[in-house]
Design a protein that fits this description.
The chain is of the alpha/beta class. The protein has one domain: Rossmann fold (3-Layer(aba) Sandwich), CATH 3.40.50. A seven-stranded mixed beta sheet has the order 1-7-6-2-5-4-3, with helices on both faces. A hairpin with a 5-residue loop joins β3 and β4.
Length: 166
């Protein structure tokens, strides 16, 4: 029995630059209305990955952790938005979740949510879940788990971009 489900993609990054490049490839596939959920402890590379996602998506805006501002809005030249948000400071209550206005953000653009595991039960069923784990100083383990056909197609395309045609 396989450890990972058939649609799951596993990647070991050996540097922040490599993590950023995976993000660039993922960002190039991201479309408005899509949700990317990040799970991982402090130092697991979440913001580094998002820097790449924003760049690949087409934003020239600088990327920083949204922990204290809750939501960063990165602009695309064509007018769409990439929302980079963080559930770290949210308690999980309906009032706190309403602060995010996730449905509204998904109508206006794509969303990358750090610390998504803290509000997992309040999230849409269809999403791309990325577990990130610190392995060593420059090494990270990323597991991409798609939920829904659009996200499965995204993962298959990402796999081709990273590892070549299968």
């Amino acid at each position: 029995m396989p450890i990972l489900s058939p649609n799951t993609l596993e990647f070991f990054s050996h540097s922040p630059e490599q993590t950023r490049r995976v993000g660039i490839r993922l960002g190039s596939l991201l479309r408005p209305g899509q949700l990317i959920c990040l799970e991982g402890e402090l130092g697991s590379g979440k913001t580094t990955l998002v820097q790449g996602i924003a760049q690949g998506w087409g934003s020239a805006d600088p990327v920083s952790s949204p922990t204290y501002v809750i939501i960063n809005d990165y602009r695309h030249p064509e007018g769409t938005h990439l929302y980079h948000t963080d559930a770290y400071r949210l308690s999980g209550s309906a009032l706190d979740i309403a602060v995010l206005d996730l449905p509204g953000m998904l109508e206006r653009g794509a969303v990358v949510l750090e610390w998504a595991d803290l509000i997992r039960t309040h999230l849409p069923a269809e999403r791309l879940w990325i577990q990130m784990q610190y392995m060593a100083l420059e090494q990270r383990h990323l597991v991409f788990t798609p939920r829904g056909k659009a996200y499965e197609a995204m993962c298959k395309e990402l796999e081709k971009m990273i590892f070549g045609a299968s």
